[in-house]
Design a protein that fits this description.
heterodimer, A: about 190 residues, 7 helices, extended
Chain lengths: ~190, ~100
């Protein structure tokens, strides 16, 4: 079965409908991440937001970036965040106050920022390609990544290794009695194994 | 609508603003880290949109977006490890109770 070129009643193109749906899911779940009281639910809504963004990447023709979004954000970072939430839940449950007292001021500042950026975006004369289609080919991307961008690629791999080692070191449980740990300065590294 | 660069840039602006609000207003350190992830995602969306609509940038934008993702993963790892390390000492994930240096 083939779809008609436009949506029958609304006369929209199918890409527009997909774009609107993904955008609504992404912004709605991002708002729920930020405004929700329960931090576990915030973490789960964050996965929704990432998934909708992966759909938008595919819509833009960057399928490999979409796949990396699913692997890295949904597969790795979300799980990391959820584990960190579970490790730092206090026994008394979620805090009474979710927001700082400065939240109203932050809201005003962010709205000003958004308005400024929207004015800047709409005031600029962007070069318009006739079509965003023409997906980024994976072999072309691989050639770029391992030829022209090979040095940044290696630097990023070293950075990731350093981050993993640093993360393990920071989050490692210290094998000392709790009282000694609390009397020491926090930043002092452990001397022995 | 989905054929204009401006629509994607507006979407990116809105997502970045939501993330910035969360970063400035949440008390929980992990919620602040999640807001940072939202902001990084917004920047990535802008990069990929530029790549899709400006033909000479097509491949480069994807490469840059992948590198931003790798750096974001590194940032999340270290940030969450720091939060867990502080939680072990202070028994709270709320950032406004980390005030030992002020006392």
């Amino acid at each position: 079965m083939t779809l008609p070129p436009t949506i029958p009643i609304l006369e929209w193109r199918w890409e527009d409908l997909l774009f609107l749906a993904f955008a609504a899911i992404m912004l709605g779940s991002a708002l729920l991440v930020v405004l929700g009281r329960d931090i576990i639910r915030s973490g789960l809504w964050m996965i929704f937001s990432f998934a909708a963004l992966a759909g938008i990447y595919v819509l833009l023709g960057a399928a490999l970036v979409g796949a990396a979004q699913v692997l890295v954000y949904i597969g790795a970072i979300s799980v990391l965040v959820l584990f960190a939430i579970m490790l730092t839940q206090t026994k008394v449950g979620p805090a009474r106050l979710v927001f700082h007292p400065q939240a109203a001021l932050a809201g005003v500042a962010v709205i000003v920022l958004a308005v400024l950026l929207v004015v800047a975006v709409s005031g600029t004369d962007w070069p318009q390609a006739t079509t965003p289609g023409g997906a980024t080919r994976t072999d072309e991307l691989a050639r770029l990544l391992f030829d022209r961008y090979v040095l940044p690629f290696e630097v990023v791999s070293v950075l990731l290794l350093a981050a993993v080692v640093g993360g393990v070191f920071l989050a490692k449980r210290e094998d000392e009695p709790q009282s000694i740990v609390q009397q020491r300065p926090v930043s002092e590294p452990e001397a022995g194994p | 609508m989905s054929q204009s660069l401006e629509a994607y840039l507006m979407l990116s602006v809105l997502l970045f603003s939501i993330g910035a609000f969360g970063f400035l207003s949440r008390r929980n350190a992990i919620a602040m880290l999640m807001s940072i992830e939202l902001m990084l995602n917004a920047v990535n969306l802008a990069i990929v949109a530029f790549g899709a609509f400006i033909p000479p940038l097509r491949g480069d934008a994807s490469v840059i977006a992948l590198m931003v993702m790798a750096v974001a993963a590194a940032e999340a790892t270290v940030g969450l490890a720091i939060v867990i390390a502080i939680y072990r000492n202070r028994r709270t994930p709320l950032v406004d109770e980390y005030d030992r240096m002020r006392q």
